[in-house]
Structures are given as structure tokens and as C-alpha cells.
Amino acid sequence: MSLRLGDIAPNFKAKTTAGDIDFYDYLGNSWGVLFSHPADFTPVCTTELGKTAFLNNEFAKRNVKVLAVSVDPLDKHIGWVKDINETQNVEVNFPIIADEDRTVANLYGMIHPNASETFTVRSLFVIGPDKKVKLTITYPASTGRNFYEVLRVIDSLQLTANFSVSTPADWKPTEDVIIAPSISNEDAAIKFPKGVKIVKPYLRYTPQPNL
Ligand code: BEZ
User: Fold this and answer.
1) With a 6 A CB cut-off, is 201 part of the ligand 1 pocket?
2) Ligand 1, closest atom to CA 48?
3) 84 in ligand 1 pocket by Cβ < 6 Å?
4) Model pTM?
5) Angle at 28 between CA 154 and CA 106, to 5 degrees
6) How many domains does the chain have?
């Protein structure tokens, strides 16, 4: 059974480019992004890890710890990191798990046998400080992920965890958000003093409340 939203993200111990880790200890009270790629020394994966390293300050600003995984061995990861740094003009500054025995891949359902019997697909999990799965995405080997979209979803997750709002299609930080239908108009006026725009009884907007 694959992991679903709201499930507890399983803990594991693993060998990584930053030494041995216990996943929960690594995360501490932070949010986490755990993402798999099919194989080292492959082009799309090289750009994905490069982009993640480039955005690492953005993840850190949001209190998110990043962790990559593939089933290749540690020595291969270490050699490949040099190539990523060189070609993507970055410093890979997050651990990459060497999941040779597929412990992590199996726990998180990262191998999709009808896509590949041996390699992990491009799975990505956002995990909250409560260790619950908040987002899952799965891309095929041929398509690199959009890590700005991952940041955008994290912004929405962190906002909606703290306020009774949700975010509309294509929302970007600073744009108006949607008031939860469970809040009455009277309570909305108190909770959202920046203003309430009623388009329909079930569709009400307010400026982003934490700005
Ligand atoms: C890539 O990263 O380019 C890639 C990896 C595995 C299969 C296909 C493409």
C-alpha cells in the first residue's frame, strides 16, 4: 500500500553522503522533503539535484530539511556530487541516501515496477513537523520536477496549517486566500480584519493573513 496524505512518514536509518542518519533525528522539528531520483550520473537527475541545491536557502528559510535518495551506492553518489557542483554551479548541501538495499524505496513506494523494476521513480514527499505526509508527487524518469512548485506548495501548507484558509488555483504568496467554509461571515469579519470579499456564500477571499 502506498503512503497517503495524513499517513505517518515511516522512520528509517540510512547511509548518506553526510554520514549515517536516523530520518526522524535528521528532521527534528523541521518540515522535510524526501525525494527520489532514478540513478546517479544521469542528465535530468543532475539538473534536479542542482536546482535543489540552488534553492536550499529557500527551503531553509521555510524550516525545511531536504533529503534525496536513490538506490546507487555511496561512492557513486560522492563522485556524482562533484559533477553536479561543477555543471550546475552549486554546492550540493543536503544528504543523498545510498539506498542500495531499497529500504527507503520500499517503505515509501518509490519503485513502480511497471515503470522500472530496479530504479526509483521521481517520488517526492513533503513531511510536516508532526511527521505526517502533507504532499506526494510522482513524476516519470523522463520529466524533471519543478522545485519552485514544491516551494509554492510548502508556502500554502504552512499558511493553511496556521490559519482557517485555503489557497486557490495557481496561488502565489502575497495573493488573496480563500476563507474556510466552516467560518461564519460574522467570525470571518473578526478573524480577518484586513477584509472579506464575498463572491458566493462558499467563495470568500481575504488578503493573506500573515503578512
Ligand atoms: C535522467 O535523469 O535523465 C534519467 C534517469 C533515468 C532514466 C531516464 C532519464
Assistant:
1) no
2) 2
3) no
4) 0.97
5) 75
6) 2
